[in-house]
Write a structure and sequence with these properties.
Elements (H helix, E strand, L loop, with lengths): L1 H17 L8 H16 L3 H18 L11 H20 L3 H19 L7 H14 L2 H21 L6 H18 L4 H15 L6 H17 L3 H18 L9 H18 L3 H18 L6 H21 L2 H17 L21 H22 L2 H27 L10 H24 L3 H14 L2 H13 L4 H26 L3 H29 L1 H6 L8 H7 L4 E8 L4 E7 L5 E6 L2 H20 L5 H18 L12 E5 L32 E5 L2 H9 L8 E5 L9 H6 L18 H16 L6 E4 L5 H8 L5 E6 L1 E2 L9 E3 L12 E3 H5 L7 E6 L6 E3 L3 E3 L1 H7 L4 E5 L5 H16 L4 H14 L6 H4 L2 E4 L2
Parallel strand pairs: 1-4, 4-5, 6-7, 6-8, 8-12, 12-15
Antiparallel strand pairs: 1-2, 2-3, 9-10, 10-11, 13-14, 15-16
Helix pairs in contact: 1-22, 2-3, 2-4, 3-4, 4-5, 4-6, 5-6, 6-7, 6-8, 7-8, 7-22, 8-9, 8-10, 9-10, 10-11, 10-12, 11-12, 12-13, 13-14, 14-15, 15-16, 16-17, 16-18, 17-18, 18-19, 21-22, 25-26, 29-33, 33-34
């Protein structure tokens, strides 16, 4: 299906520009412009080359893109048009204009697809080029997808015997680039070195491939240097130098001659930079710049810009070590120089003058350069001690952050948002931007406090939190205004992508390398590309959809206040690598903006404490005095940092709404203790004894959830597979090693949960005793994956899931809920995965995950814990109860029954959950927080 769909979308994509030709372009004009452009490019006249390649494009547009069937377009002419697009992609990439580079490279690819077919091996170099462009643009995950596709197609060429004379050259070049992409994407050491070694194997003993061989060795040297493996790095650098010294005279006329020479210099500079040998690093880098200025006429070339920027970094490190302001000023100078090069119409008269958004031509570097320019100004002006200078520097830093914010919004609008799939490069950029802005705002607010600065701080916090969730929610809202046919096609794409990813997951578990390669490089890749074309077509056809799905406006402090009751307070926490902050907002009190962590060392200590506390709570009831003492100490330590600074605003408050970040999401705040006095568990003054506590991913999302009308439906759907039939989930037994779950017995079968049957029956009886309608139970064999999916889409007020759940920390999309295995359709595997939940449209007001580790997941900066609970929020559920670790089913059953009793008496969710916990604390047998603290509420 997806193959036909992709070809159809490609055809529509081309027909939309100018379907019918008014006049036919001359073959001669196309050929002449192509040859002239190529000649100018090869002789290093990029501006002239661009002009002539664009003339080819203009002539092609006059023909009307009616396809290769147009008899007036010969195969030779079409090849020249395709190659012109390829060179345009290459040249714009060399100027760091990656958006345009990718656009033209995709155009070249599309022509080849129409010539040769969707997965013809000859297309490999197109995918190689696009992978390179994505890599240099910072879209590392995307680049890996394209490298995998290129490698797959290239291996088909090997089997077919095509282009045999240049096959080694193609493989050497591809695997060298692929290795760089794997390094940039943070893949494992073994994979990275294997890719580089494959390139070296294909370039061995071939004089013509010496440039590729040297480049590959330099890539390995950078990899070792970045990981501070200096002896290995030096060994590889020496190998590269040796090959250069032995052979460079043999290819001194090679177009790569000067490029290789300067890259050798650059990597030596990087080697010394990482060892803080500033003078030696600067010497090599300046030699690189000198050769580039003399022989390379590409002012926005990626590596040239990167080297200039790294000179600035070296000077700044030297300034931090020595306190020499001239070094700091040099850092600002080179950063500013780099900024000038990536912009048009920007000739600042001072370092306090910023470029206009439309003048920035390289967004990838703009994020990096502007961020450091802000940091340099803030640090230098602060160190000089003059208050006016300090204020000016901080104001400049905030102005830079605001520019980055605008730039970031533009980048988001051009992204393809696949529901529930974290766009890591975008999230990383948000953390970099807004964390810095928060620091600058805090320091300036200390000097001259203002409501404006407080509001801006809160704005920065909102922009860095739960990015994927609000993007998905905006997109869902925007889709509602499109025709049903568009919404249905969107769902078909998402469902097909998820189905293929499920197959990939199983292939990985079964270690089926051949199946895995085919699924990733054919099925998944082609379906995702078809989906991207579909999205672009929808955005062109419905401009309002494009605007509305990115129209995220963070709530103001006043809007948050308006959403609160008088006895509620929002505590919004943020922690980066150096500092920690909390903004405390209540309806009638002045907003507090407090710094709670003051150094990198303190941040590291806090993170270690959180891990220790979470591990201690998970492992045991802590009956030993030493364990209890350890718990009290850790809990009080966290209280001193996270609660004590804002205690004054908590007076007369009843409910705390906690907005965490990163590892703070692993804290069950209810267990925090105001003193380190050792007592019996039932006597300790836990935070839960004084407050109701609930959680959310961001203050804005919390307020938006409050704005939604409550589900007025009645009834409950309960689900319990029980697992007492010896259910065996064979593929998952191996995955058990990579998950946070301990739900399997030694035979690989799911551990039975006999109490879950009593739990759901008792809950169901509560509703029936109240004569409430629309109640349903799926037990044992009825608790299938298909039944769970179907009922999640029905308008029950409550859905209660009692069973085993999995937290896969390596691949959060494949955390899941274990269903009854047996009699399911071939599309199902008795596991409801996180990725599948994303594509559901839940109707319930509350979903309770009475299952182990349903809230445990991978901590992602700015996006919380990526696990099952988050998946249900993404699917539209306003309230979710979940657990952070494995719980005893008897205790769980008791808690859940009491919880629904309280809710049916008219109490809200947070007060009902608190009442259950207090009841358990009163009983010495269950007073340990191990029993009652894992269950938390995300909700409004």
């Amino acid at each position: 299906m997806y193959l036909r769909l992709l070809l159809a979308l490609l055809f529509l994509h081309y027909c939309s520009e100018n379907l019918l030709a008014q006049e036919l372009a001359s073959h001669r004009l196309i050929a002449e412009n192509y040859r002239t452009g190529l000649n100018y490019y090869q002789n290093n006249y990029p501006d002239s080359a661009l002009y002539h390649f664009h003339q080819v494009e203009a002539q092609y547009k006059k023909t009307g893109k009616v396809g290769i069937e147009n008899e007036e377009i010969t195969s030779l002419t079409l090849e020249q048009i395709k190659q012109s697009y390829r060179w345009l992609g290459q040249m714009y990439g060399e100027e760091s204009n990656f958006d345009l580079g990718i656009k033209y490279a995709q155009k070249s690819l599309d022509i080849s697809i129409r010539q040769y077919g969707l997965n013809a091996p000859q297309l490999f170099w197109h995918y190689h080029q696009i992978a390179d462009l994505f890599k240099f643009s910072g879209e590392y995950g995307k680049s890996i997808e394209y490298y995998e596709k290129a490698a797959y197609l290239l291996n088909q060429l090997s089997d077919a015997g095509d282009i045999s004379g240049s096959l080694d050259s193609a493989k050497a070049a591809l695997y060298f680039s692929y290795g760089h992409g794997a390094y940039a994407n943070g893949l494992d050491r073994e994979t990275i070195l294997q890719l580089f070694q494959t390139s070296l194997d294909h370039s061995k003993d071939k004089i013509s491939l010496i440039p590729v061989r040297i480049h590959c060795l330099l890539g390995m040297a950078r990899f070792f240097t970045a990981r501070l493996s200096f002896s290995e790095a030096l060994s590889v650098l020496n190998r590269a130098d040796s090959i250069w010294n032995k052979h460079h005279n043999k290819f001194s006329t090679h177009p790569e001659y000067y490029n290789i020479k300067r890259k050798l210099l650059r990597h030596h500079g990087y080697y010394w930079k990482k060892q803080n040998q500033h003078e030696r690093a600067i010497d090599f880098y300046k030699q690189y710049i000198s050769i580039s200025d003399q022989y390379i006429k590409k002012p926005r070339e990626y590596l040239y810009l990167l080297t200039t920027f790294e000179i600035a970094e070296i000077y700044f490190e030297a300034y931090k070590e020595s306190g020499d302001f001239s070094k700091g000023d040099s850092a600002v100078f080179y950063t500013q120089k780099c900024l000038i090069k990536i912009c048009d119409n920007y000739n600042p008269k001072s370092v306090y003058e910023l470029p206009k958004l439309q003048d920035i031509k390289d967004r990838t570097f703009a994020f990096m350069i502007l961020r450091y320019l802000a940091r340099y100004n803030q640090r230098l002006t602060t160190a000089r001690g003059d208050m006016d200078e300090r204020i000016r520097g901080l104001e400049m830093a905030i102005a830079v952050t605001d520019s980055l914010d605008l730039l970031y919004d533009e980048v988001i609008k051009e992204s393809i948002n696949l529901k529930g799939h974290l766009n890591v490069p975008l999230l990383d950029k948000s953390v970099i931007i807004y964390d810095g802005g928060l620091v600058f705002n805090y320091y300036l607010n200390e000097i001259k406090p203002s409501e404006e600065l407080m509001e801006k701080s809160f704005y920065y916090i909102q922009k860095m939190k739960a990015m994927q969730i609000w993007l998905d929610q905006l997109k869902e809202e925007a889709l509602q205004h499109l025709p049903d046919s568009i919404k249905q096609l969107e769902q078909q794409f998402l469902a097909e992508i998820q189905q293929i990813e499920n197959q990939i997951y199983l292939a990985e578990l079964n270690k089926d390398a051949t199946k895995l390669e085919e699924l990733k490089s054919l099925s998944l890749f082609d379906t995702k590309r078809a989906y991207e074309l579909f999205q672009k077509k929808v955005e062109q056809t419905y401009p309002s959809y494009h605007l509305s799905k990115y129209n995220f406006s963070p709530k103001s402090i006043q809007q948050i206040k308006e959403s609160l009751q008088e006895d509620e307070v929002v505590l919004d926490y943020t922690v980066d690598i150096k500092y920690g902050y909390v903004i405390a907002i209540s309806k009638n009190d002045a907003t507090r903006f407090e710094k709670i962590l003051f150094s990198t060392e303190e941040v590291n200590e806090i993170q270690a404490t959180i891990k220790d506390l979470n591990g201690l709570l998970q492992r045991s009831p802590m009956h030993r005095k030493s364990s209890r003492q350890r718990f009290v100490s850790l809990s009080n330590y966290l209280y001193q940092h996270y609660i004590l600074p804002i205690e004054p605003i908590l007076k007369d408050k009843k409910r705390l709404i906690i907005i965490g970040e990163g590892l703070t999401n692993y804290i069950p705040y209810e267990v925090l203790l105001p003193t380190d006095e050792l007592k019996a568990f039932e006597e300790l003054n836990y935070l839960v004894k004084n407050y109701e506590v609930s959680y959310h991913y961001s203050s804005t999302l919390f307020a938006k959830a409050r704005e939604r009308k409550s589900n007025t439906q009645e009834g409950i759907y309960t689900f319990a597979p029980v697992y007492d039939q010896g259910i065996q989930l064979a593929p998952q037994t191996e995955a058990n090693k990579n998950t946070a779950l301990r739900a399997f017995n030694e035979q690989g079968a799911l551990v039975p949960l006999p109490e879950s049957e009593s739990e759901v029956n008792n809950i169901l009886k509560l509703f029936e005793d109240k004569s409430l309608p629309n109640n349903s139970l799926d037990l044992r064999e009825k608790a299938s994956e298909s039944s769970l999916k179907a009922n999640l889409a029905k308008p029950y007020r409550f859905i209660h899931i009692a069973g085993h759940s999995f937290a896969d920390l390596n691949n959060p999309l494949f955390s899941g809920i274990a269903c009854f295995k047996g009699n399911q359709s071939k599309e199902e595997d008795a596991m409801l995965y996180t990725g599948e939940i994303y594509n559901l449209n839940t109707k319930a007001d509350l979903i309770t995950l009475s299952s182990c580790e349903s809230g445990f997941g991978k901590a992602i900066d700015s996006d919380g814990l990526v696990g099952l609970n988050r998946a249900f929020v993404l699917a539209g559920t306003p309230n979710v109860i979940f657990s952070l670790w494995k719980v005893y089913d008897k205790v769980s059953a008791r808690m859940m029954t009491q919880f629904y009793e309280s809710v049916l008496e008219g109490n809200d969710y947070s007060s009902s959950l608190r009442a259950v916990k207090l009841d358990l604390i009163k009983d010495p047998i269950t007073a340990s927080p191990h029993y009652w603290s894992p269950f938390l509420l995300i909700g409004r």
